[in-house]
Amino acid sequence: MKIIITGSIGNIGKPLTKELVEKGHAVTVISSKAERQKDIEALGAKVAIGTMQDPDFLSATFKGADIVYLMETWEGIGSLFDKDVDFEAGMRQIGNNYKQAVEQSGVKRVVHLSSIGAHSAKGYGSLSVHYQVENILNQLPNDVSIKFMRPVGFFTNIFRSMQTIKAQAAVISNHGGDDKEPWVSPLDIASAIAEEMELPFAGRTIRYIASDEVSPNEIAKVLGEAIGNPDLKWLVIPDEQLLNGMLGAGINPQLANGLVEMQASQRSGLLYEDYYRNKPRLGKVKLADFAKDFAQVYHQ
Ligand SMILES: NC(=O)c1ccc[n+]([C@@H]2O[C@H](COP(=O)([O-])OP(=O)(O)OC[C@H]3O[C@@H](n4cnc5c(N)ncnc54)[C@H](OP(=O)(O)O)[C@@H]3O)[C@@H](O)[C@H]2O)c1
To answer: Which of 88, 175, 244, 276 has a 20 to 30 A CA-CA distance from 59?
Structure first.
């Protein structure tokens, strides 16, 4: 099949492209950077250079495709340190660009990277934008089938705490503790997407994706052992302290508030209610596997 991949060769795009090419599909990868061409072609895929902000480019690239994989990213909307950027409006704009491009190109099968938290209009901070984008895509005509993929939090998010892990031997968040929660590896997301692309499409469907269920304290213990620092801790601080820290560092207030509210919903467990009602089979990548990758990056 002819398949278009957005999200370049990022965390999901790279393993997804590899798997689809191995399965014999004709894959075109969209990247915003011309210098990515060599690396994409080395995976056996074609390249289309352009952005998610350009609906005419998207329409032209989607033309003739059997399936398009659509993802949105905050990247490219503005600087995280610019307090005036409306990132949520930027994400909705990408959703509208995709809707327009799918309609104009005539593509009938869409796999959309959404997120846990997309089941509800509010209460989950930054994740509510995924509810809005799902709704935009749901306005496409009925003959367009859409598979909404809702991964839980990525293990790779923990790389963002590398600085405090190195300086203070701590992951610092407004949620933590011993309650297990689901985490996912982008490798399992890529496999789930590749699998869905080869299964029949019918109407609109939703699939949650998770790899392992572990608590924040277990994560700190396993990562601490992997990096040779058994004292690594997962420290919980109040919402207000985390928010003030981020605002003080100059982070965009919409993003800072969104993160704090999202993590508060992890802490209360509310975020996971719909996931547990529709619990998926867990993927192959476990915390112990991620810990090996984490240790490698930590020691680099
Ligand atoms: N983190 C989580 O816990 C979580 C949970 C649920 C869902 N999600 C979803 O997962 C997404 C991240 O997926 P990922 O990790 O595969 O992404 P990623 O590794 O961040 O890669 C995204 C790639 O998209 C390309 N890109 C950036 N801006 C662009 C633009 N304006 N136009 C065209 N291409 C652009 C960039 O590659 P080039 O430089 O080559 O253009 C970038 O590397 C999030 O945005 C969110 O929607 C995340």
So the answer is: 88
